[in-house]
């Protein structure tokens, strides 16, 4: 099984021995460096380098990190608002992804339209911790973008999201924990761990009327393909 998005650098301890691939996401210059370090000492860990919209870090410092071994994507990056500063920062990440022909990992808080406007038709995109509606999902799927679900999918109130998750084509489906954040039920409010990705996989299996083994096989393949590992 894979965890397509988490922050191992924010966990005091972690056990990822059962996971095939773990994508450790940077959210600042410092945490991107730590992601690279963890990837260099764990065979199943790969790193992404990016700056979260809330960070004020110097984007130019990211450029030096892209060429490190096991850096497989740009991000996480994205939008918490339509603030021009955030839009400009996302555009810079996209330019870097294009330059190095890497996927981009997107954080999106209610900014569907602006995400589409800025990313255009860039083909290598992962929408991390997807929480948007069916209309936006279809726009993403039409562009061949990968849709990743985390613990929010298991929350009692996430009926609409589960309806959306039913409809993602197999070849664009991903699973993640975003640990240490966003623990799934029944661990809400506790520190999340990559191994909890199994809970998300089981929920997807239930929703999509298939087995957890099938979800595992599908998401393993998709993770490998998107991040070219
Ligand atoms: Zn994250």
Task: Please provide a written account of the structure.
The chain is an alpha/beta fold. The chain has one domain (2-227): Alpha-Beta Barrel (TIM Barrel), CATH 3.20.20.140. 38% of the residues lie in helices and 17% in strands. It contains eight helices and eight strands, in the order E-E-H-E-H-E-H-E-H-E-H-E-H-E-H-H. It has helices at 29-41, 60-63, 84-100, 112-119, 134-142, 159-166, 197-207, 212-227, and strands at residues 2-6, 21-25, 45-49, 71-79, 104-108, 125-127, 146-149, 173-175. It has an eight-stranded parallel beta sheet. Helix 6 (159-166) links the parallel strand 7 (146-149) and strand 8. Helix 7 packs across helix 8 (212-227). It starts with a strand and ends with a helix. The mean pLDDT is 97. Zinc ion binds at residues 5, 7, 25, 76, 178.
Quick overview:
This protein is α/β, with parallel strands linked by helices and 229 residues long. The protein contains 8 helices and 8 strands. β2 (21-25), α1 (29-41) and β3 (45-49) form a beta-alpha-beta unit.
The CATH top-level class label: Alpha Beta
**Count of domains:** 1
Helix-residue proportion: 25-40%
Unreliable segments of 5+ consecutive residues: none
Q: Rg from C-alpha positions?
A: 16 Å
Unique bound compounds: zinc ion
Shape: globular
Cross-sheet strand order for the largest sheet:
1-2-3-4-5-6-7-8
CATH superfamily: Metal-dependent hydrolases
| Cα end-to-end separation | 14 Å
Q: What is the number of beta strands?
A: 8
Number of helices: 8
Order of helices and strands: EEHEHEHEHEHEHEHH
CATH fold call: TIM Barrel
Named at the architecture level, the CATH assignment is Alpha-Beta Barrel
As a percent range, the share of strand residues is 15-25%
Mean pLDDT: 97
Describe the main β-sheet briefly: 8 strands, parallel
